[in-house]
């Protein structure tokens, strides 16, 4: 399974109106708080790994918290990473355990996230605290041969919602948050 | 809160019969599998810490898995440790995350555990794979002044169920398992 994901800065109010005109389906809206940890025995930026606690609060229903390990890129082409994730009972307790083990919270990325379904793509509208507003267009394809046409389809979707594929950003929200802090 | 806990080797069948005669209340029975981890950046035996995944299967109902950090003894007198624990969705996934982070499973202690309530004490009958049969008598007291009489009460309970307080063992099941292996 390969994932195509394109992220661009956007004015979410305009994108929301455009999605409404196009008849895209609103699927869900959540508030996510992602805390990323530094390891005591390795430099995750150097090893290209990440350890994250994500708390997700849906519009309706209970908050869900997950612990996630992300491994380095498996290969450059597909941008595929190993991702290991499990639900945990309580984020603060997992944070306390990680802290006792010598892992330090590096930063927390908070965002309001709305998802829409449109012509086989997931369109995600993210309002990221201290970072800005972004839209992600993504889809999955079975094998590598489908990547190119999926990417072109994503560009087309971006254009139809009034966004510019060439504005594409490859930096993670964590990276953008840390950059904005170092600018201060 | 202080905990008094006394553990002695025992013939569980005899203890079970004796508890029945005394009218002790059977509270629950579970199967526990505790996996303990070594850290990549510290020696837990030296720092007197522990990191554990416990999967507990009750007689009825679903298996529950918890991640637990145990800190070093707060002081020698009370045998009190900091313990931080949270439920996790899936033990195998947490094991995979810990392994990726460089924590290695050191050993797994499996036991059948039956609990009884008797005169303010919890009596636990443990049949530990590869280690043997043990009984633990424990209770909690509000403050240090109550420790001595709680300990004497625990000795009395042990004698009433046909066990010898002087057989008391201070080694953990993990320690006993690792000792039995080094004897091989």
UniProtKB/TrEMBL annotation, chains A, B:
PROSITE patterns listed in its UniProt record: CYTH
Name of a matching Pfam family: CYTH
SUPFAM superfamilies xrefs: CYTH-like phosphatases
Domain CYTH, residue spans: 1-179
Name this protein carries in UniProt: Class IV adenylate cyclase
Originating species: Natronococcus pandeyae
